[in-house]
Amino acid sequence: MISLNHMQKIFSHKIFWIALSITLIVISFISGVYLGFLNRSEVSKVTGLMHTDISAEPAQKVDFDPFWKVWNTLNEKFVAVSTTSDADISDQKRVWGAIEGLTASLNDPYTVFFPPEESKSFATEISGSFSGVGMEVGMRDNHLVVVTPLKNSPAQKAGVQSGDRILKIDTQATDGLPVDKAVKLIRGKEGTVVTLTVAREGKKEPFDISITRGPIEIPTIDTLEKDGVFIIRLYNFSAIASNLFRDALREFVVKNTDKLVLDVRGNPGGYLDAAVDMASWFLPSGKVIVTEDFGNNQEDVVYKSKGYNVFGSKLKVAILINGGSASASEILAGALRENGVAKLVGEKSFGKGSVQELVKITPETSLKVTVAKWLTPGGNSISAGGLTPDFVVKLTADDVAKGKDPQLDRAIRYLNTGR
Description:
Blueprint: H1 4-38, H2 42-47, H3 65-77, H4 91-104, E1 112-114, H5 116-127, E2 131-132, E3 135-140, E4 143-149, H6 154-158, E5 165-169, E6 172-173, H7 179-186, E7 193-199, E8 207-212, E9 214-215, E10 221-226, E11 229-234, H8 241-254, E12 259-263, H9 272-280, E13 288-293, E14 301-304, E15 316-321, H10 328-338, E16 342-346, E17 354-362, E18 365-375, E19 391-392, H11 397-401, H12 406-417
Parallel strand pairs: 11-12, 12-15, 15-16, 16-19
Antiparallel strand pairs: 1-18, 2-9, 3-4, 5-6, 5-7, 7-8, 10-11, 13-14, 13-18, 17-18
Helix pairs in contact: 8-9, 9-10
């Protein structure tokens, strides 16, 4: 028979080992959690969540740990040493900066993220309620260039020309400066002055142009006649351009000539519908004007002639283009050339053949993203170098100073002689 005392000893012994086992398990668990905490991902250090708890993690295998490691390192180590750096910048502003860097990595000057302040400015810009210098700018070979100064604008009156490369805006160098930020620096209150340092072909050294900002009045169409040729100068593809173009064609018919010049030099573009409508006056129904290529994201959209085609094959047409002809100008010129209606005269066009969509990211921010590219009827990308004229003719500063226009003269010669 086992004594009560002996049973108590056995029971105490079991309790000891059970307690010891539980203690070891707890210690092991705590040690594992601690080691896991030390070795957690960089994003977990910021969010406080374990890596597997982040439901927004992309399905594709992308290593975001370097990003979060940089974020943490900046938080832990960065010290501002000059007035140009900011140690107290908010985390939200850092997020905006990161997104700006993400869009910049695509190397597309037309895909831009707008933080709150910039988003508000852009909304004002596209509403048309702004003052400035009156010129279109873009990127060419990673340089900020003038696409065209608008007719009678402060920029044109100050001497800015298509193709001018902008090196500085006041004291701000433009190397690596996105187009949207450059536009923000150039625009400003009416009556204030902005100084552009520009490089120009034919000039040995860069020089400054000071421009007094003012209200911008955008012209649309002018008409004139020279040597039996009717000329329509089209400055933009605005919402009213189609109706004004129709009126100009009526004027052309009254002149009783079959020779027409469409001058889109310095025309930065505008509404696609306007370009399609204008091209339809010269093309039978169903002829392709332009194709909107969305890549693999969705099916292409093909824009075809509405079939006005009031002139048939009786018309002789030349289109004047230069480095300031962009977007809708290139769509119209490419459509009429490749459908056998017109010859192009002048200099190579700008090559702005992409489509942007404005997407709201938050109520205060937005993303302007390239969603498609324009293809001519022959399937050629307008962005791939622009349009090369059938007759290449340069217009020099000396020509302009003397009131000469060799490009227009060459177009008239072609229409009158056929060569």
